[in-house]
Amino acid sequence: MLAMKVSAADSFSVLYFPAGTYLITDSLYNPGNGYDGMIIMGEDPATTTISWGGAAGSTMFYLTGWYLRVSRLTFEGNNNALNGIFKAGGFSTHNEFSDIVFKDFNTGIGLNLSGTNQGHAENAILRCTFSNCASGIASCNWNSLDQWVWYCLFEDCNLAINQCIGYFQIYNNVFLRSKTYDISSSPYKNVITNNISINSKCFYAGYESFLRGNKIYSNVDSFYTAAGSNTVMLDNLIRTTNNAYATTSVGSANMFIGNTFSNVNSAWKKWPFQPPFNPRSHGLGSGFVTNKQIEKGIDGNAATSYAIDVAPFGIKWNCPLGT
Predict the structure, then answer these.
(1) Each residue's pLDDT tens digit, 227-272
(2) Theoretical Cys-Cys bridge with 246: which of 55, 213, 265, 314, CB 3.0 to 4.6 Å?
(3) Same domain, 129 and 240
(4) According to the 3-state scheme, what is the secondary structure of 110-140?
(5) How many CB atoms lie under 10 A from the CB of residue 5?
(6) Do both 256 and 152 map to the same domain?
(7) Can you give the pTM of this predicted structure?
């Protein structure tokens, strides 16, 4: 490995890369776990590139420390490196990754926040670009939590943001042509707000999230978004083809308000969401609601459903669009 040693005893705290292409054949790392206030910065990501020329499946930079900043560089994996930056070392927080380009990690991860059992939290990923990555960002660590992804561009990735078993707060990003999904599921609750997605296979494949103001435009016939359970969706716009799957709601305790859908593709043709099928919820399957006599008696329309449920007990109404 090639070590970049910067410690509190050093007389500088900025490691600067002038414009140029830096070909490396072994991993970079900064030993130790201090580096408060350290900055690693390139002149401009358009002109300053660290390019991988080493063995397949290797990591370009094992980064340790907290309260540090990495900025204005391009990490070029040449479809051979496993990770661009792998966050290693002990627990870290308050790191900034800004104006970085991660490109051509088609079997790897641009920015990997899965390292260390002690975890990472409250780090910022700002204005970065992730191009042609198997995963743009990954957080496969139960203790890698509350990372902030703002104003980034993800293009032609397989999994743009892979939350895995961690989670991110995701604001104002652009996703282009993600092959599997823009944003994966997470076991934690998170915010997904004001993002734009164009021609991705799936915008969100998760549950228990707050989604607001996202604009999703897809010409992919198999497009889908899984709203999941315990999800709030407010003021989102979803434009899909006639052959796309319906936005799917599963489980319970969801809130969907003010969303706009270009097409309704559901087993219930007038429903903008594909609700979970529960016979009692839909006035089917028990003697007192067979043939929906109550609905017909109330408004003459059997499409509106009324049922009494016993698990949990309560009265449920289904009111399709237009009723």
Answers:
(1) 666 788 889 888 877 666 667 666 666 777 888 877 655 544 545 5
(2) 265
(3) yes
(4) EEECCCCCCCEECCEEECCEEEEEEEEEECC
(5) 9
(6) yes
(7) 0.80
